[in-house]
Design a protein that fits this description.
This is Centromere/kinetochore protein zw10 homolog. Keywords: Coiled coil. There is one protein chain. By secondary structure, the chain is an alpha+beta fold. Among the domains are: 114 residues; 110 residues, no CATH class; 34 residues, no CATH class. Helix content is 63%, strand content 7%. The protein contains 22 helices and twelve strands. It has a four-stranded antiparallel sheet. It has a two-stranded antiparallel ribbon with strand order 1-2. The protein starts with a helix and ends with a helix.
Length: 651
């Protein structure tokens, strides 16, 4: 038990010694002296003490080094008591060691040598209790000393903390400068070894160090010099990379020469070498600029001619892609366009199948620069022209859909587009809608071209033979018919009309004939397209031929006759086709009679007439009648009857 107690005491002392290890202490300040001077006039306040030497009962001298800061101020006497805690601790430590040996001897005598020494045991216990008391007193004195010196240590700790922060900043700046130096060395070395990816990564690392907002590098005088060195290295790398790009991806025939008929694209290096260059440009964020220019060249000199011109495309054994312009005015068929485009993308896939990052290939990077222009040009200038314009052509459109889907599938396979970017899907999935849209659009264009024709190009309209009443059949039935209408009623009299008016009517009838053989949805669209033709005629002719209608009376009369001619046929046009249209349309109230009034008003307006009399007409007539009545009163009984009638008629 005593030995365990001794071990505990030694542990406590070791902990105290570790906490109190310091190399310097402050001498006490004498009253009336400056804080940086000693009582003897010295200017050094921080001094080193020589550790005292203690002799214990014949044992070797024990040197104790103390750096404990001791400062006690006497409130009444003004004297300062210097306490050497390390000396006291060493004395206690020596006593504990001695006590341990005594305890060991005691245990040997009692349990090994079987000697009874009770008196000595009690003395050892008493000695242990005394040492325990001294330890408690010593701990109390240490605590009091720490409290006294705590306030004086705060400022020193703050200074030490500030010094530590400054050291950390200096260390961090030193590390950054070393990193920048390593980057500069590695960039020069990598460029000599043609390791473009490593060069680009080192440039990025250098840029991040220089542009870090949390760094204090900007405060250094050398910062501008390092920044300038980075700019020179960066520009040198870009210049060298651009030169290599032009050397390895070579174009011919791009001169501004209209007579140039051949353009070639030649990849002069292996895929591995091009891959390292492309990835290097990607890391310095300059690949997009090169791809933009490269894609624009492909669109202008390869894709656009393939779509819009008759040309020949082939790839030679030397991996040279060649396009030869044959006839710039001849529009190629869709099969040739899709075949040549597929040949182009196969060539690009073979030579630019480079994985850049995140499993993205170079073709994927090219998509944003090309897809929009490719989709617009291919759909509007090629695929849209393959859409059928009749039911017969619609039945033969299936091969076009299959080849279009095959081309899109190949673009997905090589990674140029994804399943979400199938830009031709609209045409392959909605062919019925596109079919009727194209028909209606073509019909409106055709009607517009007819309307623009000259009005003076005319023909003579002769009415058809009027229908006669079946007199013979009715006479047998003893039915009498009172005919109050002329046989020419509801017939347009003989007159001159423009050829364009007859062409408009023939076009309307052809539209209705097409509607009779179409589906319900298409028939509805065609019917309303037919109505739009007449509306466009009534609105466009007065504007397009305005100058002639204002100056040439003949054309005014012809336009009037045209409007009456069309209005006359519109009265019965819907009735003529009602039973021929699909059943769903037969249930609807399909008519053109509302447009009859519109055409008549337009025709009368051209002659300066109106279909309705103004409200002032009645008042004018009443005034005339009243004037005649007044003349009757004064003239009838005076003038001969024949003279009276002649005078009233002239008035």
């Amino acid at each position: 038990m005593i030995e365990e107690f001794g071990d505990l005491v030694l542990t406590l002392l070791d902990r105290i010694l570790k906490e109190e290890k310091q190399d310097f202490f402050f001498l006490p300040e004498d009253e009336g002296l400056p804080p940086n001077e000693s009582p003897n006039g010295g200017s050094v306040l921080l001094a080193t003490i020589t550790p005292p030497t203690i002799l214990l009962e014949g044992k070797p001298a024990c040197h104790v080094t103390s750096s404990q800061q001791l400062r006690h101020a006497g409130c009444e006497t003004g004297q300062v008591e210097k306490l050497n805690l390390r000396e006291k601790i060493s004395q206690i430590q020596e006593e504990i060691v001695k006590l341990k040996y005594d305890v060991k001897d005691f245990m040997d005598d009692n349990y090994i040598e079987f000697s009874s020494k009770l008196t000595k045991n009690q003395r050892l216990v008493s000695k242990a209790e005394i040492l325990t008391k001294e330890m408690n007193d010593l701990q109390k004195r240490i605590d009091d000393q720490i409290k006294i010196e705590l306030s004086g240590s705060i400022k020193e700790l703050q200074n030490l903390s500030q010094a530590l922060k400054e050291s950390n900043v200096c260390l961090h700046l030193s590390n950054q400068l070393l990193s920048l130096n390593e980057c500069i060395k590695s960039i020069n070395q990598y460029q000599e070894e043609q390791r473009y990816v490593d060069t680009a990564k080192s440039l990025c690392t250098m840029q991040n160090l220089l542009d870090n907002p949390e760094s204090d590098l900007q405060d250094l005088e050398i910062y501008n010099a390092i920044k300038e060195e980075y700019k020179n290295l960066h520009d040198s790398f870009l210049s060298h990379a651009s030169l290599l790009w032009d050397e390895r991806i070579c174009w011919t025939g791009l001169e501004n020469n209209k007579d140039e008929t051949v353009v070639t694209l030649h990849i002069k290096d292996k895929l591995e070498n091009i891959e390292d260059l492309i990835r290097g440009l990607h890391y310095v964020n300059k690949l997009s600029d090169h791809l933009d220019q490269f894609s624009e060249t492909i669109m202008s000199h390869i894709i656009q001619p393939i779509i819009n011109e008759h040309c020949s495309v082939f790839v030679s054994k030397e991996n040279i892609f060649t396009i030869e312009y044959i006839d710039k005015k001849q529009i190629p068929i869709y099969k040739s366009v899709l075949h040549n485009l597929k040949l182009l993308f196969r060539y690009l896939h073979e030579h630019f199948n480079v994985i850049i990052d995140d499993n993205q290939t170079l073709l994927m990077k090219m998509q944003p620069h090309m897809l929009e222009q490719l989709a617009e040009s291919l759909t509007m200038n090629c695929i849209a022209k393959t859409i059928p314009s009749s039911n017969t052509e619609l039945k033969n459109f299936e091969p076009v859909v299959e080849e279009t889907n095959e081309f899109q599938s190949y673009l997905v396979e090589i990674g140029f587009i994804t399943e979400e970017n199938l830009f031709l899907k609209e045409y392959t999935d909605n062919i019925d809608k596109l079919f009727i849209d194209k028909i209606c659009q073509d019909l409106m264009v055709k009607a517009k071209n007819i309307i623009r024709k000259d009005l003076h190009d005319s023909i003579k309209h002769i009415p058809e033979t009027p229908l006669k009443f079946p007199n013979d059949e009715l006479e047998n039935e003893d039915i009498s018919i009172h005919r109050y209408l002329n046989e020419s009623s509801f017939q347009l009299p003989t007159c001159q009309i423009s050829k364009s008016a007859k062409e408009i009517l023939d076009l309307a009838k052809s539209i209705l004939d097409e509607a009779c053989d179409s589906s319900d949805a298409s028939a509805v669209r065609l019917f309303y397209t037919c109505r739009n033709v007449f509306e466009m005629y009534a609105g466009l002719v007065p504007e397009h031929h305005k100058k002639f209608l204002e100056t040439i009376p003949q054309q005014v009369a012809l336009f009037h006759n045209n409007c009456m001619y069309l209005a006359h046929h519109l009265l019965t046009l819907a009735h003529e086709y009602r039973d021929k249209l699909p059943e769903s349309l037969q249930q609807l109230n399909l008519t053109f009679t509302d447009q009859t009034l519109i055409l008549r008003n337009v025709g009368l307006a051209a002659l300066g007439q109106v279909s309705e009399l103004p409200s002032s007409t009645e008042r004018a007539l009443r005034q005339c009648i009243r004037q005649l009545e007044l003349l009757k009163t004064v003239w009838l009984d005076v003038l001969p009857i024949n003279i009276y009638c002649r005078a009233v008629g002239k008035s």
